[in-house]
Amino acid sequence: MLHTVNxxxxxxxxxxxxxxxxxxxxxxxxxxxxxxxAIKGTAESSKIEGAVANRPVYVLGPDVKARGLxxxxxxxxxxxxxxxxxVDLAEEHGAHNAWL
Amino acid sequence: MAEYEFDTExxxxxxxxxxxxxxxxxxxxxxxxxxxxxxAAFEQHANIVFADDGVYQxxxxxxxxxxxxxxxxxxxxxxxxxxxxxxxxxxxxxxxRIIVEKESMEARGLxxxxxxxxxEVxxxxxxxxxxxxxxxxxGG
Amino acid sequence: MKFxxxxxxxxxxxxxxxxxxxxxxxxxxxxxxVPRVFFYYDGVNNANKLSEPQADDRNLVKLWGDLxxxxxxxxxxxxxxxxxxxxxxxxxxxxxxxxGLGQLVEAGxxxxxxxxxxx
Lengths: 100, 140, 119
Description:
The complex is a heterotrimer of chains A (about 100), B (about 140) and C (about 120).
Chain A: E1 2-5, H1 14-20, E2 27-30, H2 45-51, E3 57-60, H3 61-66, E4 78-81, H4 83-93, E5 96-99
Parallel strand pairs in A: 1-2, 1-5, 2-3, 3-4
Chain B: E1 14-19, H1 28-41, E2 45-50, H2 74-88, E3 96-101, H3 102-107, E4 120-122, H4 124-132, E5 136-139
Parallel strand pairs in B: 1-2, 1-5, 2-3, 3-4
Chain C: E1 2-7, H1 16-29, E2 33-39, H2 60-71, E3 74-78, H3 79-84, E4 96-99, H4 102-110, E5 113-117
């Protein structure tokens, strides 16, 4: 299953619920405002720092760039993908579960 | 306007309907239930899951008179009837589960007795497996 | 692979329709099929031909319509959700059609993946 999270962890609990209700090992892609969770050195960084230890985590590059953030600021172990990569992840990981 | 014809003959999938928002503040709860009911016409398996503030959708005693909105909680009675029909009628190959996440329920000080319909209360780790095994996830 | 797309938000308040559009375009360019996009909730507003975005911004109503024409994508607006929000045949943009919620369930049944974009 491919989980996507499109909400900032500062705004809503979507990432928390995604982490709680998804299986270890299943992939998470952070999109839209969800990319904020992938940034190093914030008060919420520990959630994704913990997640990369037991599952693949991706972030949508166009959404990072649009928000004035750079790939250098992305937490180690989180892979940056573009929309092509999003499609590949959807193909590889099975059903899509969007945590809104 | 290219109308596409799907060949859905004999297709049996498991849909998970994810309800995570409180009722009335937004329309998501109501419109998800409409999708659940339509899926019955196609005899698909369904997990109707309530987590986070979505558990309040099931709370008994909604009284919307003073906010002037339609009370949609009777819809749960219809869903429960559909489920019971499917459970009892051997000719209907449709397994529906109405599931509340235990952690969300407890975090809000609720118990099974607070709900309008019979539910399965399932802990997050087990619920994660159920969701993971579904083919389509629809929510609002 | 066949991708079905579900869009739950309109073209302006949320990014959902934008992300869905970029995903759909990328999938088609990679050679996948996207037989149907289903517009539900406020997503029906993506089909309002009376909407006039500012000239220097993207126009998702037109972008979806153009993509549908070019790549033969079936753009379906939920009749019940549309009626509530005033999306009817009179103001339906080119490339869209109005039908029932069963078309969403069918897309889920008939596609390898159902991708949901919302808020």
